[in-house]
């Protein structure tokens, strides 16, 4: 508990988490506002409300999470941290828990904020959340952010530089996983096992409008909750590798 | 007490620290002296568990730093004043450190008061001058009221007032019975600060002794003599001493006979003296003499 309090103090006594939170909110909810404003009257759907949260704002949250650790390396406060808490694993796990928790909470705020705004802007559309799939599609965004934060922190610990970590995370999520689908025949088979594709699969609404959803056309071998577990498994595995490396490396 | 036993740190073929053994005693200021690149900072990082030694061992009262439960209560360290997030206030910086070692937060204001930063406690540390940053670093080291204190080049870049403050401060800490270990590449600074010295060069121990002993060993006394009858005087003195000539003004430089005796010898032989002055070798010269074998980069 002590270490969680320490990481909370550290995170909220700098500016970048505030800026990233604000940016994620503006981008996530803002994109939904634009979509809701330009969609024809009554045609807004639950699926359309979450493009901003599950794609655009997610990238900002990943950057924020990576920054929480790379700035420690940048300003050498990681050394001050390891002096105060010589158990590096405990210190870094505490940081991961705090950042993942904040990311998850932010995810829920952005997801329901986007949904609420769409409902206000497009009152005639059917935006009631009544099926399990619809609940998962909206409320699941928080889970995605939390797990994404763990993965981003792991990358941050391994790379130790802001520029490197941010480049890796953005190229990975926004380009690499999508581009692999272009490879003939095997592309979509590989995609079925890529972490962020599985994250999208978890959110997928199913039903008639699947073509609009990210991750469409991929033949996933896992159930939707299985995909989430797979995504979480990869994030945790990467974190374990990062913790082992951090423990062995000279600070 | 800090004890290093055959401590080694190798980076590939470079031996940053090589077979280094020493003891730092409580109640005294111990200087850790060596030219730049001698391995002082690497040794300090190994003491604090930041770097893992390639071989050997270093302990604080018999324990590794990483085994300490609340290390800040036992050991305070200032390795680099810039290890602070520039956007974090001085107070927040100390607050998270205090919380991490279950030190009451009231102690934060106390140490800010001690180092004279109370007025800027809520200012962001990025805007601090080097002297202020150094004070903040010292406040961090004092936070847990530790028995053992480590300072790496604490006076680097400070103005004379700051240097004096730190020097007096370290003496006060040692007088309170604490172990104070402070590194520097300047012997003249250490001569005024440290009671004991551990001198290293190229990662190896050169000397571990009291500062007084080290200085008297390192700096040889000699006497400068100028006389219109220098040739005659030189002949007489050469019988019982080493006499050389100053390359600049031709004065005689006498090793082995104290000044009063030279005066008496001159009087007996009716030799006029224009100068008779006892000289003490400069500390820096002596230090360079001792470490010149082990300086990593030479200027030619």
UniProtKB/TrEMBL annotation, chain B:
Highest taxon in the source lineage: Bacteria
PROSITE patterns, sorted: ABC_TRANSPORTER_1, ABC_TRANSPORTER_2
Keywords, alphabetical: ATP-binding, Nucleotide-binding, Transport
Boundaries of every ABC transporter domain copy: 2-227
Record-linked Pfam families: ABC_tran (PF00005)
Record InterPro entries: AAA+_ATPase, ABC_transporter-like_ATP-bd, ABC_transporter-like_CS, P-loop_NTPase
GO MF term list: ATP binding
The family this protein is said to belong to: Belongs to the ABC transporter superfamily.
PANTHER family in UniProt: ABC TRANSPORTER, ATP-BINDING PROTEIN
Protein name: ABC transporter ATP-binding protein
Organism: Lentzea flava
């Amino acid at each position: 508990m002590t270490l969680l309090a320490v990481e909370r103090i550290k995170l909220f006594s700098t500016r970048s988490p505030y800026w990233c939170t604000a940016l994620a909110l503006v981008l996530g909810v803002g994109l939904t506002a634009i979509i809701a404003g330009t969609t024809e009257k009554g045609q807004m759907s639950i699926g359309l409300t979450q493009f901003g949260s599950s794609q655009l704002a997610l990238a900002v949250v990943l950057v924020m999470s990576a920054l929480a650790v790379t700035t420690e390396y940048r300003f050498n406060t990681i050394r001050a941290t390891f002096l105060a808490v010589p158990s590096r694993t405990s210190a870094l796990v505490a940081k991961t828990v705090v950042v993942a928790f904040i990311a998850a909470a932010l995810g829920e705020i952005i997801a329901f904020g986007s949904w609420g705004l769409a409902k206000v802007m497009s009152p005639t559309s059917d935006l009631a959340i009544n099926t399990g799939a619809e609940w998962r599609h909206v409320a699941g965004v928080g889970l995605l952010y939390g797990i994404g934060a763990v993965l981003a922190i792991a990358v941050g610990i391994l790379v130790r530089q802001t520029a490197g970590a941010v480049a890796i995370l953005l190229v990975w999520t926004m380009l690499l996983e999508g581009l692999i689908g272009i490879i003939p025949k095997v592309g979509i088979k590989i995609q079925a096992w890529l972490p962020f594709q599985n994250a999208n699969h978890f959110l997928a609404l199913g039903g008639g409008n699947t073509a609009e959803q990210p991750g469409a056309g991929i033949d996933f071998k896992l159930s939707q909750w299985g995909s989430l577990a797979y995504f979480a498994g990869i994030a945790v595995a990467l974190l374990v590798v990062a913790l082992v490396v951090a423990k062995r490396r000279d600070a | 007490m800090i004890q290093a036993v055959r401590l080694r740190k190798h980076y590939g073929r470079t031996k940053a620290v090589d077979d280094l053994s020493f003891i730092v005693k409580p109640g005294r200021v111990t200087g850790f002296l060596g030219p730049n690149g001698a391995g002082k900072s690497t040794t300090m990082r190994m003491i604090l568990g930041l770097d893992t030694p390639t071989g050997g061992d270093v302990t604080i009262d018999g324990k590794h730093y990483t085994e300490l439960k609340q290390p800040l209560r036992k050991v305070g360290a200032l390795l680099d004043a810039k290890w602070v997030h520039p956007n974090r206030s001085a107070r927040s910086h100390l607050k998270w450190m205090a919380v991490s070692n279950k030190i009451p937060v009231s102690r934060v204001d106390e140490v800010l008061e001690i180092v004279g930063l109370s007025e800027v406690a809520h200012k962001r540390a990025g805007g601090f001058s080097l002297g202020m940053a150094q004070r903040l670093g010292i406040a961090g080291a004092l936070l847990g009221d530790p028995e053992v204190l480590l300072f790496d080049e604490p006076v680097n870049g400070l103005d004379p007032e700051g240097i004096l403050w730190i020097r007096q401060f370290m003496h006060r800490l040692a007088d309170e019975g604490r172990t104070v270990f402070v590194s520097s590449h300047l012997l003249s600074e250490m001569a005024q600060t440290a009671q004991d010295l551990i001198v290293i060069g190229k990662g190896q121990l050169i000397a571990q002794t009291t500062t007084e002993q080290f200085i008297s060993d390192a700096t040889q006394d000699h006497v400068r003599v100028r006389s219109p009858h220098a040739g005659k005087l030189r002949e007489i003195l050469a019988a019982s001493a080493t006499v050389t000539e100053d390359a600049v003004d031709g004065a005689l430089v006498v090793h082995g006979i104290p000044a009063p005796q030279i005066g008496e010898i001159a009087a007996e032989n009716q030799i006029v003296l224009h100068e008779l002055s006892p000289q003490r070798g400069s500390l820096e010269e002596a230090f360079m003499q001792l470490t010149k074998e082990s300086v990593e980069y030479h200027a030619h």
